[in-house]
Amino acid sequence: MISMINLLRKALVPLLAAGVIVATISCQVPIGPRPMPPYQGGPVVQPRPPHQIPVSLPPGPTQPIPPPQPNPQQTAQVQFLSMVPLLIGADGITVRGSDRPLMPPYVNSLIKMPFPSRVAYRDVRVQFQPVQAFRNTPVRWQFKALGGKLRGSLPGGTPILSTPPGSRIPFNRLDANATTLVRISLPPIGLNRGQLSVTSIADSRVGSALEMVVPAVVVIDPGHGGSSNLAGSSFNNARSPSGVLEKTLALDYGRNLAQAVSQTFYSRGLPVQVALTRDRDINVTGRNRATLAKNLRADTFVTVHFNGFNGQARGTLQVQRNAAGGNVNLAEDNRLANRIVDSVVGAFKRFDPGAKKRNPVVLSTSVSNDKSLGNSAGHHPIRHAYLEMEFIDNPAVDHLLNGPYKHQVRSTTVVAMAQAIYDDIVNHRG
Ligand SMILES: [Zn+2]
């Protein structure tokens, strides 16, 4: 079992040791009772009651002194007892209570194994009650994908369900305590989701189900930073007429975007991990930014820059690494980038009619290098969008982004961007 702590250490320590990167997991999979997702039309999902069916217990042996009689109408039920491993929080410490399974309508988070493993998994323990009625009886585990088919595939031979964990057969006999354990493994694509159910073979009326989901992982990459130029990352490029530096605005938007992404997922009751390649005024090499996204097993990697040119140019655009530059998943990157560019333009337009979308600029930046991202032709788990948000050397843009409405503009924009990122993950067909 590979712990998430080790995994995060492996991901971060080399970079920290190199003295060039600080990554902050700004939030983690929320565990424990969460607020209901807001009502958004359609039927309201009510929490289901625990599955309870009356059963008759087998008669005890005839004996002169009767033992205490079990209640023959004692209800049969299934209780999900625990899940391992525990989730890891923003501080790298295990999340207390994350071993407790949550019943529908809540969903339980799986854990992505380290790169390049293609599995997200969790082991779930269940007990049938009353114990004396079900001990040593057989049960059947089943899995049903929710929200369409499962996306991606598991490594050859890996079953979705295995009992005991690691075996090949989704079938088990309860032990003397009427418990058993199943491992659920799904392709590690953010928001792959399904229902895990278990039923008594002796009495098919007795069963229960849990919902499981692969957490989405989003890495936000504010461009530039610090005071020295590094490989693939100068410390600053553009500057606004009012004196705001591109690196400062990129960090400001990046931090706020990270929060907006968390909020967008949590408001739907869905787990997400959000990380920043930098959360303060330091620079990071282009390659280390990409490597962080790889090591955190990101679904989505979003690089945020602001542009500068001749003081007059306007518009929002994507910096695109094309197929000739070695981009193995250009179409996926373009879909993500277009969604985000459109969301930025739409948000800016609410405050400034001069906002517009520009054509992509083709450039092979090191932050978009698929080898650093861990993408290959046969397996490309990360989609990258590299944005130039606007030309901040234009006085109208300076007024838009740094003027009296700057907070409203920023919050409107990052909320729209977060929605675009969510839409891309939900609709991705990897
Ligand atoms: Zn830049």
Instruction: Give Rg in angstroms.
Output: 25 Å
The 3D shape can be described as elongated
Number of helices: 8
Could you give the count of β-strands? 18
Set out the fold topology:
Elements lengths: L3 H14 L6 E4 L24 E3 L20 E10 L23 E2 L1 E2 L7 E10 L1 H4 L3 E8 L15 E2 L8 E3 L5 E8 L6 E8 L6 E7 L2 E7 L23 H21 L5 E5 L9 H10 L4 E8 L9 E4 L9 H20 L11 E2 L7 H4 L9 E9 L3 H8 L3 H22 L3
Parallel strand pairs: 4-12, 13-14, 13-15, 15-18, 16-17
Antiparallel strand pairs: 1-14, 2-3, 3-6, 5-6, 6-10, 7-9, 7-11, 8-10, 11-12, 16-18
Helix pairs in contact: 1-4, 3-8, 5-8, 7-8
This protein binds zinc ion.
The site of zinc ion has 5 residues, from loops.
Walkthrough of the structure:
- This protein is α/β, with parallel strands linked by helices and 430 residues long.
- It folds into 2 domains: 138 residues, Immunoglobulin-like; 212 residues, 3-Layer(aba) Sandwich (Aminopeptidase), CATH 3.40.630.
- Helix content is 24%, strand content 24%.
- The protein contains 8 helices and 18 strands.
- The strands form 3 sheets. A 7-stranded mixed β-sheet has the order 1-14-13-15-18-16-17, sandwiched between helices. Strands 2, 3, 5, 6, 8 and 10 form a 6-stranded antiparallel β-sheet that branches.
- A hairpin with a 6-residue loop joins strand 11 and strand 12.
- The radius of gyration is 25 Å and the shape is elongated.
- The N terminus is likely disordered.
- It binds zinc ion.
- Zinc ion binds next to loops.
